[in-house]
Each structure stands twice: as structure tokens, then as C-alpha cells.
């Protein structure tokens, strides 16, 4: 039994491997981009809009609201990263209802890639907001003794992000696979539904955690007014 | 459970590409559309508010104008009423004055007419009476009457008071010309000496006399010497009658 889509290799040339993870990711990317392009091509600025536009607007404004609720005062700056994280994980998790589909998020390589992206994005936004020095200062706060703990915290939470998502999705896929071989009727469907629910929850958790980490980095190293606004929240 | 590092790198690249593409095709257009719509709605609301404010201002202006118009109209009506009243009063006064003047003029004209009529009647009556009386006296005149007149005149001379007699004497003395005695009738030669003597007695002085006959005197006799005059005739009595008639008719015109 294949536990990860990484194991399904379509093409290999030395270090370069084209496996199911990459292919399914491309397919999801294509679907997302084509859908967006098709809907946003006919965007209207009137009061009356199409249903699809309405759904897209609800989705985008929902993401923006969530980011704002976490504490980021300029959500439009972060929606490219955080929104894409959420949409990609959500789509790849929901698509488990298609037969022969293996979610890329059930591959540790994908979740590790996403976690590394967050790991890079956090200092990136932190430095962008308050400068390198201010960001580095956050590692020695509240005192210098906390430096090793802060570094460990950074690494461990990245690892936790990757493993949490991978574990949840992979386990769901594995359970459905096992159930299919034992009781091919009813139960796998229920488990698939459960897996979808878990997938949505995991997508939300992953993006919210990334947002929280970015908020923590930008708020500590950011401008005083940002801090005051955040603390008010 | 193992990590394929090429897959990891590929997924990172995939993720970044996806983020870029979604930003390009999803977030930006949608957010722009939302912003545009919000702007449009805000501008529409702003326009509506402006229009409402304008409408309110217009309404207020209109109401004020209406009130002003009503006030002016009322004032004009009041003024017109006042003016009409005043004009009416003035016209009434004028008419009343004109009526009064007219009635006064009419009364005066009537009075004048009446007076003229009375005067004419009186004149006519007097003239008629004089004519009748004169005619009658002329008809009745005879020697006896003439003698009687001479007697009466003589008696009158005798009854003059002292002052009158003195004046007569002075007049006769001053006058170089003869004393003129006018009578309606001819004084006979027999009567003349008696009459001359009576005058001389009354005046207490001598004088020459000249007798003239004047029919207009109507049964009368008149002495004229140096501006002094003594006369007696029926005319005096007729004058008295004339005055009595005037008194009865109530006019003074006759006296004039």
C-alpha cells in the first residue's frame, strides 16, 4: 500500500523526479487558476453581480476578515501568501472525494515545503515590517536567555506545522484505503466525508497558525502604533 | 514517510508560483472590484445625500419665498383696502362738500331770485301806486286843493323851530339870487303875496321871489334859496308808503 503520492513516480532523471505529488499539485494549481481567471474575467463593479463573483468575493473578503481578526492590520499585504496557503490546502484536501486521487498534502514533502515557506515568510514579513535589527531583537525578548528557546520554538513549530498537516491527511487517506479493503461499502464514504471535514479544518489551522506566526513577528518588530492597535484588539 | 527533497523544492516553487498567479488572477481583480463598487456606492450615497441636502435647501428657500409672498400679498391687500377706504372717504367728503356748495348756491340763487322778484313786485307796485296816486291827485287838483297846499306849506313855515327859522333867514340873506318857489301848479297872483309874506315872516328878512311850475312834484311846493330847501309834497307820503311796503316784503333792496 502506498502511503504517500511521492511513491508514485511518473518520470525520473537523476535527482529530478516527477511524482504524483507534483502532478496533482499542478492539476490543482491549474484548476484554481483557470477557475479564478474565468470568473474574474467578467467581474462587474455594479451593485448587481453574478453568483460566481459573489462566491469569490465572499471567499476573498472572508480570508481578509480572518487575517484581520488574527491581528494583521493590512490584510491585503498578506492575502497572497496566507490566502494561497489556505486555498491550496483546502482544495487538495477536499479533492479526496475524487477516485484515484491522492492529496499532495498527504506527502510529507509537500507539507514540509509549505512549512518551510512559512518558516521563510515569517522573518521575511518581520524584516519587511520593522527592519532586520528589530526582527532579530525579537529573538532576545523578553531577555537574552530566551534566545535558544526562541530559535528552538521557530524550528519546532515549523516541524509541527509540517507533521500536523501531513499526519492528519495521510492518516485519513490511509484509513479510507484500509477500510476499502475491509468493508468496501458505506464506511469508506463516511470516512471520506470525515476526511474532507478534517481537511477543511487542517487548511484553516495551517493558515491561521501561519498568520499568527507572521503577526507575532511583525508586531514585535513593527511600529509602535501597530502594537497599540494589536493590543487593543 | 521519507522526504523527497526535490519534491520539497518543486512544491515550494509550485506554491510560490500559485501564490503569484492567484494574486494576479484572483485577489487583485476581486479586491479591486470590491473597492470600485464600494467607491461607487459611497459616491452614490454622497450624491443622494447632496441631492437631499439640496432638496432641503430648495424646500426651505421655497417655503421662505412662499411666506414672503403671502406676507407681501397680505400687506398689499391691507394697503389697497386702506387706500380704497381713504379714497372713498375723500370722495364722500368731496361729494358732500360739492352737494353743500351746490345747495348753498341754489339757496342763494333762490334767495336772489326771490329778492329780485320781490324787488320787481315792489318797484312795480310802487310805480303803479305812484302813477295811480299822481294821476288821481292831478285829476283831483283844482284851485281849492292848490290853495289848501299853499296853506299847508304856509302852516309848515310857521311851525318851524327857531334854529330852522334862523337857518332859513341866513340862507335868504346870503343868497343874491331870488328865492325859487317850485310848485306843481301855477300859483295865482292872488296867492303869491300871501306866500311871499309867510316866507318873509318865517325868515325874518326881505327877499325877492321867482315862481316856477314843475309838474313832477305831484301836488307839492318847494322853496329853494342859497342851498337851503324847504319842501312839502305828496311824494313824502308816497315815500312813507313805499317804506311800509318794503317792510312787509322784508327786503332791504328797496331802501338801497
Estimated share of beta-strand residues of chain A: under 5%
Instruction: Characterize the overall form of chain B.
Output: rod-shaped
Largest sheet of chain B: 4 strands, mixed
What's the shape of chain A?
A: globular
State the low-pLDDT regions of chain A, or none: 224-233
- Which radius of gyration of chain A do the C-alpha atoms yield? 20 Å
Helix content of chain B: over 70%
Task: Write down the overall mean pLDDT of chain B.
Answer: 84
Instruction: Indicate the mean pLDDT of chain A.
Output: 86
Order of helices and strands of chain B: HHHEHEEEH
Order of helices and strands of chain A: EEHHHHHHHH
Total number of domains of chain A: 1
Largest interface (C-beta under 8 Å):
A-B, 48 and 35 residues
Task: Walk me through this protein's architecture.
Chain A is mainly α and about 230 residues long. Chain A contains eight helices and two strands, in the order ββαααααααα. Chain A has a two-stranded antiparallel ribbon. In chain A, a hairpin with a 2-residue loop joins strand 1 and strand 2. By secondary structure, chain B is an alpha+beta fold. Chain B has two domains: about 120 residues; about 110 residues, no CATH class. Chain B has a four-stranded mixed β-sheet with strand order 2-1-3-4, with helices on both faces. The longest helix of chain B is centred in the first third of the chain and has 136 residues. Chain B is rod-shaped.
Quick structural gist:
By secondary structure, chain A is mainly alpha-helical. Chain A has 8 helices and 2 strands, in the order E-E-H-H-H-H-H-H-H-H. Chain A has one domain (5-232).
Q: What labels describe this entry?
A:
A: 233 residues; mainly alpha; two-stranded antiparallel sheet; globular; B: 256 residues; alpha+beta; 8% strand; rod-shaped; disordered C terminus
